Amino acid sequence: MTLSVGVIGLGVMGAEHLRLLREETAGVHVAAICDADAERAGRLAQDAEVFSDPLALIASDRVEAVVIASPDATHAGLAEACVAQRKFALCEKPLAGTAVEALQVVDAEVTLGRRLIQVGYMRRFDPAYVEMKRAKDAGEIGAPVLLHNQHRNAAAPGWFTGPMAVTNSFVHEIDISRWLLGSELVSAVVHAAPGGDPLMITMETERGEIVSTEVFMNAHYGYHVHAEIVGRSGTVQMSQPAVTLTNSALHHGHGYPENWVPRFRDAYRVQMNAWVRSVATGEPVGASAWDGYVATAIAEQVVTALQTEGKAKLFLGARPEIYA
Ligand code: ISE
């Protein structure tokens, strides 16, 4: 059986998802694409039907499942439209621009009584994070006490506005920290360097683990994400996932990618294949709409903290049964 997929949004991530679907994913065919830029959509169409209206793509009989990779603020509405059409969707992170909108997606699934939305928190499929979680879960480092995250971009993407360092970048750290530790975040303290970049955010989990995160949007030297879990009897950290070591011009070392696409290429590929299989089996994988809501809700509360007294007691509400 071949799954017919529609892709909405063909920017950096949408184009990469389209490439992955066509070149590196089994059991799938791209039946439709949609982008605000008609010329770009035409260039990438091949045999896919080109839509100018994302809601028409979602409603099309030719589309069985949808990849949503349009701008952040449009995610929730499109995810809700997929639920209304009873179609599975892989929705790029963040799930929504606001916690209220994210909860509307959760509510739509709860009303339907099933999960159709997977949020593209792809780090859950990254080999380095997967191995760190395995080592921690196997007890190889003892009980975790600290998690150190570093999230550095060479330069903030051109489309960044307002507090997107938190709502678009730091959301990854919220999701991966909950996933790695298997516990919920209950409080946060935020510091901003002069000029607002980098941010240093310290959170505490319900079990008292401390999660420290640096978010540096203009680190200049390259794209660099790193994590280390400190346990009572050892630590586990990712080594740079570089496959070569270069000796040249008096230097010895690994390079850094310019952005997240090369760094997380394996994660995106594994995520896409897992999503397509999950649509076929009906067994959800990856981050749920609830996980998407949690990341957006915490990000929103951290933004408020940043603009006020720098601290937040995090509030989420009760997790509905379908996400147990
Ligand atoms: C981007 O959207 C991502 O998802 C990257 O992983 C992150 O590092 C970057 O800051 C975001 O803008």
UniProtKB/TrEMBL annotation:
Domain (Gfo/Idh/MocA-like oxidoreductase C-terminal) ranges: 138-313
Domain Gfo/Idh/MocA-like oxidoreductase N-terminal: residue ranges: 4-120
InterPro entries listed in its UniProt record: Gfo-Idh-MocA_inositol_DH, Gfo/Idh/MocA-like_OxRdtase_C, Gfo/Idh/MocA-like_OxRdtase_N, NAD(P)-bd_dom_sf
Name of this chain's protein: Gfo/Idh/MocA family oxidoreductase
Biological source species: Fuscovulum ytuae
